[in-house]
Amino acid sequence: xxxxxxxxxxxxxxxxxxxxxxxxxxxxxxxxxxxxxxxxxxxxxxxxxxxxxxxxxxxxxxxxxxxxxxxxxxxxxxxxxxxxxxxxxxxxxxxxxxxxxxxxxxxxxxxxxxxxxxxxxxxxxxxxxxxxxxxxxxxxxxxxxxxxxxxxxxxxxxxxxxxxxxxxxxxxxxxxxxxxxxxxxxxxxxxxxxxxxxxxxxxxxxxxxxxxxxxxxxxxxxxxxxxxxxxxxxxxxxxxxxxxxxxxxxxxxxxxxxxxxxxxxxxxxxxxxxxxxxxxxxxxxxxxxxxxxxxxxxxxxxxxxxxxxxxxxxxxxxxxxxxxxxxxxxxxxxxxxxxxxxxxxxxxxxxxxxxxxxxxxxxxxxxxxxxxxxxxxxxxxxxxxxxxxxxxxxxxxxxxxxxxxxxxxxxxxxxxxxxxxxxxxxxxxxxxxxxxxxxxxxxxxxxxxxxxxxxxxxxxxxxxxxxxxxxxxxxxxx
Length: 478
Known about the structure:
The chain is α+β, with helices and mostly antiparallel strands. It is 34% helix and 29% strand. The chain has 4 domains: 5-71, SH3 type barrels; 75-221, Glutaredoxin (3-Layer(aba) Sandwich), CATH 3.40.30; 223-368; 372-476, Sandwich (Immunoglobulin-like), CATH 2.60.40. Strand 10 and strand 11 form a beta hairpin.
């Protein structure tokens, strides 16, 4: 097996470009033949585009011979589906193909007859979602005067029923770089051009929408993969779209309540941080603040500085794949496009937030009720009310409900509320029907984790575990 780094790249070159064939040798002296289209070079590395959109970075010194081959032909959606089906096995995957989309459902186990019917309905909904994303994104591009094109390669979305399989897949694709897999709900990969999502997130399609916008950006010719596009621009654009279920309703021009509320509360990240570097967005610790500010910065420039936005995007599109840009150049490019210092735009944003404060707060109260925690994990969606009980020694009292968001099967669930003192409350919920909601009766966090100090807790977390109902509920107890 070649030891070259496998990544993905998109090019705006037409499909009729010729392919080349390369005889190469790796660091162990193993020879092989590769074929594909030259995408670019950097630092003595040749980037070779594969027919499925994958790009192999091969050191120039490792190429023994190069010769012209036949016309470059990207794979069809049918061929892409066949390749993926071999990887995930027909028994544990279901597929829907509607050009240019290939949507796959990777199962945790076999389905009964009812589950098969539900899987087909789910895949139909997923394809409809992808089509909705396409329509709204292309409308935004047209409104902004951004040239966009048809996708050269199949647009693949993989949906994983099992969180464990999703996280294994994420680690395989990313090599463990970026946010840790356990903290990722879904991602679009520049490595394999695939949109990968936990099924838990397909109840609302909020996370798939964000990642699908990235897929649109890099497959519609708006930007080239592996060019030094600032993360704030990339993520700010994606956070600008909102929807309800499989329908996408608004684009980056809308004032989005959740991000507006979060942006108003940021303390550790500034706009200049985002413009100079991607560090805050790509790390675990500051990502929450950074994403909120990325939305704010992008919303401001797309709504109030359209000419500068178009000029800035044009500058980004001139950059070559695999090239680098210094922090100083990133700031200079930004200020040249928008004609004002970063600080001035930040002050303008704060004024706009204050002018819309009443609207933001009212919408926030409707969408995010005070005192109610909502979280989705392991095919369970929990709404929880919790309060510290001073009359009970500072223990937390919690109650609420859990919904099985799986459209395919009954599930066993365990829900735990764990405090920072190591005390917890636990609910074991066997055989919860598909899409059914069950209560979490009121409980105190009066159980103690091993070696925990106990006593009053100041904070708490919610953890949801699950198994398919055919697995005994006891299997999730520890």
